[in-house]
Specification:
The protein is mainly alpha-helical and 301 residues long. Helix content is 81%, strand content 0%.
């Protein structure tokens, strides 16, 4: 009996020792559960987040619901819409090309650590970002007083060369460039800041000029940022309305773009306005799909 009693006691103690880690693990799991619950969004954050998401998504849903699907193709293939689409694509491509020519050097200027521009970088960056916060219609008025017939530059242009900029295709391109170029500049500036400057120094130590190092070393490294900025610039130029209608007007076949077509159609043919809006929405979604890899990569970092 004592032996059996000691055996039972040993078994009990063994069982107790075996159950100890399990019970401790269980207590640890229980202890981590409140932490897991704490990581979930509180209601006071989740509710406004969902309301904000609905505010962004539901307008697009309303367009899809309201769309005249039965007559969508004929409306989009009408002569007026095709002319506006052709003009919009042409002007947006020209504005993107002009933004690349002017914006990439400007972004490089914003990231330089020496030279005359170094002390003025903050002011230059503020100037570059002004069109992002300025109402587009104000930008159009400013361009009109700059390049109009009585404008600061427009008057001497008209007097000396007979050149009139407003209400032309050139005016559309200038207005789109004014509004869209900051997107490209800021994107390229961010890419340039991520480049290892030691590579340029190494190229210089091997005898490469500064321009050669920029062209053969820096540009290939920032090419993804340049491409992303160009896509954003194109999309913004394609959707520009306020500065365009103020500075270039809305003459069919000459300055009437897709956004101005939406504005005019909304007054006389709302269903055509919805159809054109869907076309612009599709372009916006296409831009998101083009940039998804870059955004996902950035988020993963």
């Amino acid at each position: 009996m004592p032996a059996s009693g000691s055996a039972e006691a040993g078994a009990a103690s063994g069982a107790g020792s075996g159950a100890g880690p399990a019970s401790e693990a269980g207590r640890g799991a229980v202890a981590t559960r409140p932490g897991a619950r704490d990581r979930r969004l509180p209601v006071l954050v989740l509710v406004p987040a969902l309301v904000g998401l609905a505010l962004l998504v539901l307008p697009a849903v309303a367009l899809l619901v309201r769309a005249p699907w039965a007559t969508l193709a004929p409306r989009l293939l009408s002569e007026g819409v095709l002319d506006a689409l052709r003009l919009s694509l042409t002007s947006a491509l020209l504005a993107t090309a002009l933004s690349l020519v002017l914006g990439v050097p400007l972004a490089w200027l914003l990231t330089t650590s020496d030279g005359w521009a170094a002390p003025w970088r903050r002011l230059l960056r503020a100037v570059v970002t002004v069109p992002l916060v300025l109402p587009p219609v104000v930008g159009g008025v400013a361009l009109l007083y700059l390049l109009g017939r009585q404008g600061l530059i427009g008057r001497p242009l008209d007097a000396a060369f007979g050149v009139t900029v407003p209400f032309t295709l050139g005016a559309v391109v200038i207005a789109q460039t004014f509004v869209a170029m900051p997107f490209l500049v800021l994107s390229v500036e961010g890419a340039l800041r991520g480049v290892d400057r030691g590579l340029e120094a190494a190229a210089a130590s091997l005898g490469a000029s500064r321009w050669y190092a920029f062209r053969r070393v820096t540009v290939p490294l920032v090419a993804p940022g340049v491409a992303a900025g160009a896509v954003l610039c194109f999309a913004r130029a394609l959707g520009e309305f306020g500065a365009t209608i103020t500075f270039a007007g809305t003459f069919p076949g000459r300055t009437q773009t897709l956004p101005t077509s939406v504005y005019l159609a909304q007054q006389s043919d709302p269903e055509s306005a919805v159809a054109i809006s869907l076309l612009l929405l599709a372009v916006g979604v296409g831009v998101l799909l083009l940039l998804r890899d870059r955004w996902l990569t950035t988020g993963a970092r």
